Amino acid sequence: MFCMKALLVDERTLTFSKGELPIPQNGPDEVLVKVHAAALNHRDLNMPLFYKRMREQDASFPVSTYAVGADGAGIVESIGSNVRSWSIGDPVIWSSLAYCGVCSACLLGQNVACLKGNIMGSTGLNGTVAQYVAVPAKLLIPKPEHLDVKESAALSMGLGTAWRALITRGGLQPGETVLIQGIGGGVALFALQIAVSMGARVIVTSSSDEKLKQAMALGAAAGINYQSEDVVERVIDLTNGNGVDLVVDGGGSKTMPIAIQSVRDLGRVVNYGFVTGRTFTLDTYHLMIRQVSLVGTAMHTYSELVSAVRFFSNAKLRPVISKVFSLEDSLQGVEHLESGSHFGKIAIHMD
Q: Which pTM does this prediction carry?
């Protein structure tokens, strides 16, 4: 059996390590991709902790060691017997959410909520920080021609999540004002790029003046340092007392109260994460009387990612890459992600 190098996580010890796994064999509806580059997401840090909580609730919950990562780009190496739309040698990226296609959510076109879905880089489905990955052919997307392989590898999860939060769930329109909290991570930066490109006015927050400066260079109209400024006061001032039309929030417990106070009457707040915690106190009267829409979102459908990649390509946008590490140095990439100092995506190249 031939083996490949990969970045692994051991769910028993919650530790990352470099190691080897058998090269996967693609099934009849899959392709085998030789991965040229991959990218890390904050989710890669959260998944082992999620499985730990599941095992604390149910001792029989399965544990494993698997390759991390959901995003990547590469070349089709072999194709399954049922695959007709792809050929050996095609440069591809992919949606990382494997879905069944037959459950009630999938039949409604919402495969993001598939009842039997699984995400690359988790128990039962190896990830992309590896030399090879088997991908269902229905998840593949042509690699954008204007991007190199490392930039292309950075797209999938962050770009799709930002698109769903802004467009599908948030309903952002040209000319509106949007507040993006916690600029610097992949989703927030993709949201900034999309919103600016479609003609929205964007306000961002961060604890880093340097990150705010970088965000404004990408088109943000204003930046607020939440450690030295009152975010709500600044937002109200920047919007002539009205508040923003839309807030996109990935912080959770510490940032959602700020989001609700910063949005205008009849405005929308979309949450896609909980970096600062999962719970907060909600004044439902405040929500009701101002008729604020509070919406949750996670990841993206396949069609949303296709639309987002097309938009990115048509606008000739490029993802922001914080640092690139080799597979050999991928543990340093994990440390860089854990530090929270990155501005943009963390890419891993396989050469």
A: 0.93
pLDDT digits (tens, 9 = 90+) for 166-177: 999 999 999 999
Residues 18 and 149 in one domain: yes
Model confidence pLDDT, tens digit, residues 182-230 = 999 999 999 999 999 999 999 999 999 999 999 999 999 999 999 999 9
Q: What is the CATH number of the domain that holds 47?
A: 3.90.180.10
Q: How far is CA 232 from CA 79, 130, 211, 259, in A?
A: 53, 44, 19, 8
The pair of structure tokens assigned to 143 is: 């690699």
pLDDT above 80 (res 51): no
Looking at the structure, tell me whether residues 211 and 81 fall in a common domain: no
Q: What is the residue range of 327's domain?
A: 3-155+319-349
Distance of CA 298 to the CA centre of its chain: 9
DSSP state of 326: E
CATH number of the structural domain spanning residue 236: 3.40.50.720
Structure token digits, residue 190: 């993709």
The Cβ-side half-sphere exposure at 88, using a 13 Å CA radius, reads: 6
